[in-house]
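Weekly modeling sync, notes
Attendees: S.R. (lead), two postdocs, one rotation student

Agenda item 3: backlog of single-chain predictions. S.R. asked that every request posted to the team notebook include the full sequence so nobody has to chase files. The rotation student volunteered to paste the first one in as an example of the format we agreed on. Action items at the bottom.

Example entry:
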Amino acid sequence: MQETAVCDERGRLTLGRDVTERFGKKFHVVMMPREVVLIPISKDPLKSLKEEGKKIPQGLSLEDTRTLADQLGIREAKENYERLQRLVKKTKRRR
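Predicted structure, as returned to the notebook:
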């Protein structure tokens, strides 16, 4: 899904219904050097954390858990970087 949103004169940004139905109405705003990232905030963060905790394999040592978390974080960062690079290229082509 790709969508364009425009701020009004007071700096407010309106997201479409499909976005708010999928991700909720509350977001953490992360300002990067060349972009703004909206990260959805769960209605029940504790429940979300418990669900994520269930995904961790049982019986791992703390060190193994840290290593796994590092690997997953690096993979996710690379995927996000590649996605952003594609968006930047697409945006440059439109100009």
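Discussion: group reviewed the output briefly. The chain has three helices and two strands.
Action items: rotation student to repeat for the remaining queue; S.R. to check formatting next week.
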